[in-house]
User: Which sequence fits this backbone?
């Protein structure tokens, strides 16, 4: 990433003038390979996705996912960013007729997550997910966090106790809930619920954590808390986050991918994408011309 | 920091946990499928049992004599198996029931779907459900011991056992069902259609009769047909109050056994397994099943149509 | 200019006729609404009167002796002990069979079955079974259970028959409950790596519990009043004994001998007494009717209350 400035004034992102470069709309520039110094956690290669009605939502996407970094996927609504994210833990397998093409290679084993022999349940054991709307289970806070452990057949009380506390601490919500662990998760505020859901996702130690617009249903204060949390987490876990909020991507992510109409138009260092986009579409999106 | 006592997916595979879970999931899926398939088995078993025992019956009684014979005397020395008396009584009581349930059901459904305030509707619907919950033998009691003595004061020539009163009671019995199915259909008519009517200056009753009823027509028809099917298959009211004497009559003031009442009567007596009298209850049962099946299938498709239409 | 005057004139007359029409329509509206209310009130009053009559005739007959006596040839000594014990035991069998099978079928149809001819076929089947007259189930049981499997005219057979009878009701109610569970809860569970059965067992079934409960209660309330199929399988109307107790003093303390015993149930006892000529038996019938109605109404009341609570819950 030699061509990126080291720091940028984030407030300037919005007002970045649209440089009217000569457009080359049909041939996006080749997506940059991941920087050599960052180890890979997963590679999305020539990946396409078709919904059961035949609609191709993802078109031959290539994208590296860096280990213990935050990768943000941005783009206008309907561009396929959530669809791509949900492909990474085989959510689409829950509904019949959906079809994947290409590869999602999990490193370092080199296993293809969407290959015919890959079991969707096993994939989800490795790749956790946090959803758009906070979706705690109608159970106690404790049982919500323990859910992923129970799925893995863990029954020892001491192990679960410890894992629940660890996960709640990592999700920065321990202090708020430690006195009411056995109260209903529905008594928490929306922001707390979402952090609880992140704790739930973290508890079983996933290899990758997917966040699907995790703050879209939250107020600004709760959003800030979740953002701080995500940034801290990236020291220990690989995160892929979809967001419709460009500032959010700029604030928290290390790498950003811009998607448009099912294609990955541009991928690169977040600073570079927001300060010096290579593709005119990326540029018009981040400068607010559509989206 | 990540907790090391939590197994990774590789460890889960190695310990056999994943394989075990897979077998459990597969086994449960099979079990659940068998539960669902039981319904198919039940239908098949019904058809099988009815046809098997009717088969022997129709070996002895020609189908033509069965369908068009006017004498039903199964336990006489020279038994006759003409089903018309039973069928006539069945259709008369069901017809009487429809004569009550159709107009009243329609008015009540329109009232509930178009006029009643939500609070009123929320009170009346559970009350209607309660009516549906009254055991049929209790309705039989009402028909025989309450309504008949009462109506004998108004209807000259009304016998103690008759078709009229069970018919009326049957109508009240199926009313809640007819109301709830047709109200569902009316409420499924989109509000945009109603608003179109109001936009033309129609009054409520005009919207109800010119827009809602035509719009919900297939659903309302389904309600009537399914109600009819219930009336035809209802047993206890008729066994108690319509009598058990096969009697080809078109006078509802007289008593006559219906198909269902005949089955009850034969079951109460000691009918030798395998005798022609035993087989005869399966033959009339088959007839009853075919009639109700026909109604149910028509009703099912009409109902599905209004669900798809909006 | 003349066209405008004409327009204004005709507009005025139209206004007049329109005004009349509106007034007429309003009158008809009131007529319609009153008609609806009157019909409703009529039906309700008639039924309340009938039930009131039943209670007045029967309630005084209900006492300790009535509940603890066997049926008798003497109307004043007749009781419903064997009938309510029989009903209870038959319901036990019915609930034990219909609830798990209903849950299984409901889950399969709602969560497992792919849309196709098979699931469509099963669906039509279930809805058709809901409309099959109850007496046909009686014939099925007579031909298949009593004579086909040689199970005899027992509590087990009655329970099985009623279980088949209420299965469609239970299935429909469970499917509705399962359908109402938000998709994001399900996806959340799958997202943790749960397999399909884990999701069913740990999330879907617990979340659908109120719906399962209402379905079971409504189904059982239907079964408890069902008479025709039980008559068809040949339940006896005069039973002056109780089936062997399910709990015994010796090891293994639980006995299933009662399953193979003869029995009678409340609605059959009532039918039997209604059909007798003596008025004293009619009073006993009315008393049994009061017990039956009290049972079914309270069961349905509980179901309606659960559903009401449930709806409040979703609103939050």
Assistant:
């Amino acid at each position: 990433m030699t061509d990126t400035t080291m720091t940028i004034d984030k407030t300037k992102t919005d007002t970045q003038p649209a440089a009217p470069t000569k457009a080359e709309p049909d041939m996006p520039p080749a997506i940059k390979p991941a920087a050599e110094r960052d180890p890979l956690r997963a590679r999305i290669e020539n990946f396409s996705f078709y919904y059961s009605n035949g609609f191709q939502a993802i078109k031959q996407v290539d994208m590296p996912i860096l280990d213990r970094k935050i990768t943000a996927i941005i783009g206008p609504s309907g561009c396929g960013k959530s669809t791509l994210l949900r492909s990474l833990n085989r959510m689409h397998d829950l509904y019949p007729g959906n079809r994947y093409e290409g590869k999602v290679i999990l490193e370092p084993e080199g296993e293809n997550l969407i290959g015919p022999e890959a079991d969707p349940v096993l994939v989800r054991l490795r790749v956790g997910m946090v959803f758009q709307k906070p979706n705690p289970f109608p159970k106690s806070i404790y049982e919500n966090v323990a859910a992923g452990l129970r799925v893995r057949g863990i029954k020892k009380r001491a192990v679960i106790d410890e894992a629940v506390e660890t996960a709640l601490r990592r999700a920065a919500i321990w202090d708020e809930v430690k006195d009411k662990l056995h109260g209903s998760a529905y008594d928490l505020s929306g922001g707390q619920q979402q952090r609880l859901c992140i704790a739930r996702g973290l508890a079983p130690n996933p290899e990758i954590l997917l966040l699907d617009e995790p703050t879209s249903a939250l107020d600004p204060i709760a959003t800030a808390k979740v953002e701080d949390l995500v940034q801290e987490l990236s020291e220990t876990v690989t995160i892929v986050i979809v967001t419709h909020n460009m500032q959010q991507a700029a604030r928290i992510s290390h790498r950003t991918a811009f998607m448009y109409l099912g294609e990955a138009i541009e991928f690169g260092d977040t600073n570079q994408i927001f300060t010096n986009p290579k593709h005119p579409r990326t540029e018009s999106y981040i400068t607010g011309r559509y989206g | 920091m990540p907790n090391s006592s939590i197994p990774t997916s590789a460890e889960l595979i190695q310990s056999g946990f994943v394989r075990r879970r897979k077998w459990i999931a597969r086994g449960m899926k099979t079990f659940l499928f068998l539960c669902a398939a039981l319904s198919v088995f039940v239908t098949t078993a019904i058809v099988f049992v009815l046809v098997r025992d009717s088969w022997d019956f129709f070996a002895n009684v020609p189908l033509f004599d069965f369908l068009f014979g006017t004498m039903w005397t199964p336990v006489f020395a020279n038994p006759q198996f003409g089903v018309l008396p039973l069928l006539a009584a069945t259709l008369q009581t069901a017809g009487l029931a429809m004569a009550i349930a159709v107009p009243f059901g329609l008015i009540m459904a329109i009232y509930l779907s178009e006029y009643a305030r939500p609070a009123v509707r929320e009170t009346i619907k559970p009350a209607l459900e309660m009516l549906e919950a009254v055991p049929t033998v209790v309705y039989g009691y009402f028909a025989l011991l309450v309504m008949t003595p009462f109506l004998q004061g108004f209807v000259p020539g009304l016998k103690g056992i008759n078709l009229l009163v069970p018919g009326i009671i049957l109508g009240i019995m199926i009313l809640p069902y007819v109301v709830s199915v047709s109200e569902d259909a009316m409420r499924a008519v989109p509000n945009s259609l109603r608003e179109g009517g109001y936009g033309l200056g129609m009054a409520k009753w005009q919207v109800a009769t010119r827009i809602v009823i035509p719009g919900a027509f297939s659903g309302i028809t389904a309600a009537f047909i399914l109600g009819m099917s219930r009336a035809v298959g209802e047993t206890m009211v008729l066994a108690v109050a319509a009598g058990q004497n096969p009697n080809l009559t078109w006078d509802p003031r007289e008593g006559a056994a219906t198909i269902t009442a005949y089955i009850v009567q034969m079951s109460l007596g000691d009918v030798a397994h395998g005798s022609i009298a035993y087989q005869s209850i399966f033959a009339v049962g088959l007839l009853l099943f075919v009639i109700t099946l026909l109604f149910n299938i028509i009703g099912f498709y009409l109902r599905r149509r209004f669900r798809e239409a909006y | 200019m003349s066209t405008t005057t004409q327009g204004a004139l005709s507009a005025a007359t139209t206004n007049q006729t329109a005004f009349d029409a509106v007034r007429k329509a309003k009158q008809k509206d009131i007529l319609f609404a009153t008609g609806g209310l009157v019909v409703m009130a009529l039906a309700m009053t008639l039924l309340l009167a009938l039930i009131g009559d039943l209670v007045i005739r029967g309630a005084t007959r209900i006492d300790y002796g009535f509940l603890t006596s066997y049926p008798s040839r003497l109307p004043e000594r007749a009781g419903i002990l064997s009938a309510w014990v029989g009903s209870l035991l038959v319901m036990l069998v019915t609930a034990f069979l219909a609830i798990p099978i209903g849950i299984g079928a409901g889950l399969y149809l709602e969560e497992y079955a792919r849309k196709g001819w098979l699931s469509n076929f099963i669906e039509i089947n279930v809805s058709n079974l809901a409309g099959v007259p109850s007496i046909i189930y009686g014939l099925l049981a007579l031909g298949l259970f009593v004579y086909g499997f040689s199970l005899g005219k027992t509590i087990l057979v009655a329970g099985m028959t009623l279980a088949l009878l209420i299965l469609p009701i239970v299935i429909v109610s469970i499917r509705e409950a399962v359908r109402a569970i938000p998709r994001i809860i399900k996806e959340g569970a799958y997202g943790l790596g749960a397999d399909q059965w884990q999701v069913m067992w740990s999330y879907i079934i617990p979340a659908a519990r109120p719906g399962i409960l209402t379905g079971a209660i409504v189904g059982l309330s239907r079964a408890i009043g069902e008479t025709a199929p039980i008559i068809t399988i040949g339940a006896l109307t005069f039973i002056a004994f109780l089936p062997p107790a399910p709990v015994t003093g010796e090891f293994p303390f639980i006995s299933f001998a009662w399953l193979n015993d003869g029995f009678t149930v409340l609605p059959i006892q009532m039918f039997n007494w209604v059909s007798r000529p003596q008025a004293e038996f009619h009073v006993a019938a009315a008393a049994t009717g009061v017990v039956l109605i009290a049972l079914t109404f309270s069961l349905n009341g509980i179901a309606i209350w659960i559903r009401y609570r449930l709806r409040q819950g979703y609103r939050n």
